[in-house]
Amino acid sequence: MKAVVQRVRDSQLVIDNKLYSKIDNGLLVLLGVTHTDTKEDAVCLAEKIAKLRIFEDENEKMNLSVMDVGGSLHIVSQFTLYADSHHGNRPSFIEAARPEMANELYEYFIDYCKNKIGINVATGSFGAMMNITFTNVGPVTIILESRDGKIL
């Protein structure tokens, strides 16, 4: 499972020209699922993201997590994180999980963040064409990947 995590002041997601979801201070999480991912990968990645200390403390040091600052997660599925562009100019998405499996783990990840970690979550709509606008603070962007229940 891969995640691109961006520290944001705000994030808005629009589907069919209508506001679907938004957050203020928090993390925009673009989440990709591959064939070998499991619920253990989702748990591992969710815990890491929730505890990732990338918000500034009173000394302007990145020392606080999204939970410490009372922030939210904006979790959006993104199969293109598993693009392979080694051959030619058109990416292959063969490493991305099939939609049924990917959606199941995406929903599990969201549920885990909300109900086990207890963090406020907004989402995208799996498989929809979405437009996202956000203000990346810093900018801070972290790429994380889990495999076999461990962060790589």
Features:
single chain; 152 residues; D-tyrosyl-trna(Tyr) Deacylase, Chain: A; 7-stranded mixed beta sheet; two-stranded antiparallel ribbon; 9 strands
Provide an overview of this structure.
The protein is built from two helices and nine strands; from the N terminus they run βββαβββαβββ. With 152 residues, the chain is of the alpha+beta class. It has one domain: D-tyrosyl-trna(Tyr) Deacylase, Chain: A (3-Layer(bba) Sandwich). Strands 1, 2, 3, 6, 7, 8 and 9 form a seven-stranded mixed β-sheet that branches. A two-stranded antiparallel ribbon has the order 4-5. Helix 1 crosses helix 2. The longest helix has 19 residues. The relative contact order is 0.30.
Q: Give the overall pLDDT as a whole number.
A: 95
What is the C-level CATH assignment? Answer: Alpha Beta
Q: How far is the N terminus from the C terminus?
A: 10 Å
Q: Secondary-structure element order, as H and E?
A: EEEHEEEHEEE
User: Could you name the ranges where pLDDT drops below 50 across 5 or more consecutive residues?
Assistant: none
Count of DSSP E strands?
9
Residue fraction in strands: 35-45%
**Total count of helical runs of at least 4 residues:** 2
Helix/strand/pairing category: alpha+beta
Biggest β-sheet description? 7 strands, mixed
Helix percent reads: 10-25%
Please tell me what the overall shape is.
Answer: globular
At the fourth level of CATH, the homologous superfamily is: D-tyrosyl-tRNA(Tyr) deacylase
CATH domain topology: D-tyrosyl-trna(Tyr) Deacylase, Chain: A
- Radius of gyration, in Å, reads 15 Å
Query: From the coordinates shown, what is the CATH architecture?
Result: 3-Layer(bba) Sandwich
* Whole-number total of structural domains: 1
